[in-house]
């Protein structure tokens, strides 16, 4: 099994620099706009103001919701609930958004209430699929998965560090292992990932191990993003579908 090493974005301090800015600049509730809607973001919750979600990724997500027309959607690691809420606002009738920090769960709930989605959405605390039993199945499962390995145990990471770090890709492995049993018969599972910022060889090793292959989800605006302020401005963050082998 491949042993991960910190890439230069982590090793040379680029990621922690962004986290430091996030911790000092966005240490109070603030508003961001995504997909034409405003969201409240709490401190210590993943904020696109510091770690941007590229416009083409949001558009691809919305295109998938419009094409698939899922009855049910599960977003793992939802942060403040941006993409889960956009799914609910664009036709999904039952949406579940999870996260592993209490701040994020409270943040998701605040945005659910902002858009009066309490009858169709819920925020669930827990890691990956741990909160669910075998009968919990969804038409679409998605995770904008943390890309960066760090040589530090998960339990020693701060809430903000957990939004970007995935030691040993243990979270990725739990996602790829557990997704099979939580899909409906025609369900589909997706992941957002960066080959530049992440560890694609490790992701491919794990997809093969658990019976998946990766297929890039394309749209007409698919490009490598050049996002000011993130690492060295190279952010090939795209959505991939996990196809059963």
Report on the structure:
The chain is α/β, with parallel strands linked by helices and 245 residues long. The chain has one domain: Vaccinia Virus protein VP39 (Rossmann fold, 3-Layer(aba) Sandwich). The chain has seven helices and nine strands, in the order ααββαβαβαββαβαββ. The longest helix has 14 residues.
- What CATH architecture would you give? 3-Layer(aba) Sandwich
C-alpha-based Rg, rounded? 17 Å
User: CATH superfamily, please?
Assistant: Vaccinia Virus protein VP39
Task: Count every beta strand, where a strand is a DSSP E run of 2 or more residues.
Answer: 9
* First-to-last CA distance: 20 Å
- Strands in their spatial order, largest beta sheet: 5-4-3-6-7-9-8
Model regions low in confidence, pLDDT < 50 over at least 5 residues: 223-233
What is the share of helical residues?
A: 25-40%
User: How big a fraction of the residues is strand?
Assistant: 15-25%
Q: For this structure, what is the CATH class?
A: Alpha Beta
Keywords: Methyltransferase, Transferase
Protein name: ETFB lysine methyltransferase
Family: Belongs to the methyltransferase superfamily. ETFBKMT family.
GO molecular function: protein methyltransferase activity
């Amino acid at each position: 099994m491949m042993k991960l090493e910190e890439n230069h974005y982590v090793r040379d301090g680029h990621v922690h620099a962004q986290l430091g800015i996030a911790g000092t600049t966005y240490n109070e509730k603030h508003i961001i706009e995504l997909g034409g809607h405003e969201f409240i973001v709490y401190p210590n919750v993943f904020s696109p103001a510091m770690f941007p979600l590229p416009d083409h990724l949001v558009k691809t997500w919305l295109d998938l919701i419009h094409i698939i027309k899922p009855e049910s959607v599960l977003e793992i690691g939802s942060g403040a609930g941006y993409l889960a809420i956009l799914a609910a606002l664009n036709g999904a009738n039952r949406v579940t958004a999870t996260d592993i920090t209490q701040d994020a769960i409270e943040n998701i709930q605040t945005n659910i209430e902002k858009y009066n989605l309490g009858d169709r959405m819920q925020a669930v605390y827990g890691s990956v699929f741990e909160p669910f039993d075998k009968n919990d199945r969804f038409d679409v499962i998605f995770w904008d998965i943390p890309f960066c390995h760090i040589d530090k145990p998960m339990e020693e990471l701060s809430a903000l560090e957990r939004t970007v770090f995935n030691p040993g890709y243990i979270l990725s492995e739990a996602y790829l292992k557990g997704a099979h049993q939580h899909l409906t018969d025609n369900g589909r599972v997706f992941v957002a990932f960066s080959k530049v910022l992440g560890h694609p060889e490790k992701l491919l090793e794990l997809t093969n191990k658990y019976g998946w292959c990766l297929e890039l989800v394309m749209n007409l605006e698919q490009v490598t993003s050049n996002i000011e302020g993130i690492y060295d401005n190279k952010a090939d963050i795209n959505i991939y579908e996990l196809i059963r082998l």
